[in-house]
């Protein structure tokens, strides 16, 4: 269906991922993750990895620790 490359998701796939990250949920549950993966044409693992990296990037931009689990850490 789509030619996967080592460079990561295509622009169209990133658009879908970004939309879901910004408008839907920064922490998708397994069901939502599965739906996003299907919509983007990626595997759940690829989608989860993207969300994890994107969340770390977002946290840094907000001045938060990239791996912090709770507000009190």
Automatic annotation (TrEMBL):
Domain Homeobox: from-to ranges: 10-61
Entry-linked Gene3D superfamilies: Homeodomain-like
DNA bind region: 12-62
Pfam families per the UniProt record, alphabetical: Homeodomain
Places the protein is found: Nucleus
GO cellular component: nucleus
Assigned keywords, A-Z: Developmental protein, DNA-binding, Homeobox, Nucleus, Repressor, Transcription, Transcription regulation
N-terminal signal peptide: none
An individual GO BP term: positive regulation of gap junction assembly
Gene Ontology MF term list: DNA binding; histone deacetylase regulator activity
Tree of life domain: Eukaryota
Entry annotated with the keyword Cell membrane: no
PANTHER family, A to Z: HOMEODOMAIN-ONLY PROTEIN (PTHR21408:SF1)
Quaternary assembly: Interacts with serum response factor (SRF). Component of a large complex containing histone deacetylases such as HDAC2. Interacts with the acetylated forms of HSPA1A and HSPA1B. Interacts with HSPA8.
Protein name listed in UniProt: Homeodomain-only protein
Natural source organism: Jaculus jaculus
Lineage: Eukaryota, Metazoa, Chordata, Craniata, Vertebrata
Underlying gene: Hopx
């Amino acid at each position: 269906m789509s030619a996967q490359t080592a460079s990561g998701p295509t622009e169209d796939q990133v658009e879908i991922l970004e939309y879901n990250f910004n408008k839907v949920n920064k922490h998708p549950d397994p069901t939502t993750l599965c739906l996003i993966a299907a919509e983007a044409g990626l595997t759940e693992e690829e989608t989860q990895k993207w969300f994890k990296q994107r969340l770390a990037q977002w946290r840094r931009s907000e001045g938060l620790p990239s791996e912090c689990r709770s507000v009190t850490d």
